[in-house]
Hints:
Layout: E1 2-15, E2 19-21, E3 24-26, E4 30-32, H1 40-53, H2 58-61, H3 74-87, E5 91-100, H4 110-121, E6 128-133, H5 139-142, E7 146-156
Parallel strand pairs: 5-6
Antiparallel strand pairs: 1-4, 1-7, 2-3, 5-7
The structure holds magnesium ion.
The site of magnesium ion has 5 residues, from strand 1 and helix 1.
Amino acid sequence: MHKIGFGYDIHRLEAGRRLVLGGVDIPYAAGLLGHSDGDALVHAVIDALLGALGEGDIGTQFPDTDPRIEGARSTGLLETVMGLVRSRRAEIVNVDAVIVAEEPKMGPHIPAMKAALAPILGLPQNSLGLKAKTNEGLGPVGERQAIACYAVTLIRLPG
Ligand code: MG
């Protein structure tokens, strides 16, 4: 059986914070606010996987009241979710994601993001789609107040 999952996340940008997206440190004047490292791309991917598994969402799996989440690397949370994927004997077919950010330019960082995330997901890099867009100056994302990410996945489950 195959199932698809969809995830979305948005985090506010705050001046002076470290910017981590797709498991990669990106030099910029602002970073994403959050209890964890604020990695909205990894959070969207996690929600897509949990959706496909029928296992709720990132908030139910990792409540922000949990002190272990404070400052946690989101790639570590993704590794935990991959444990759930494996325990269900599921296999990820592919993941496709979009980063919507006005600044900084994400394109140059996509190879590093793929290199960081594909091994965690157990995917060849050509089964992990990462695209970057701006919001054409529109709304809070366009005004550089936030970065938003979307992700879909297809998983194969036994039976
Ligand atoms: Mg989030």
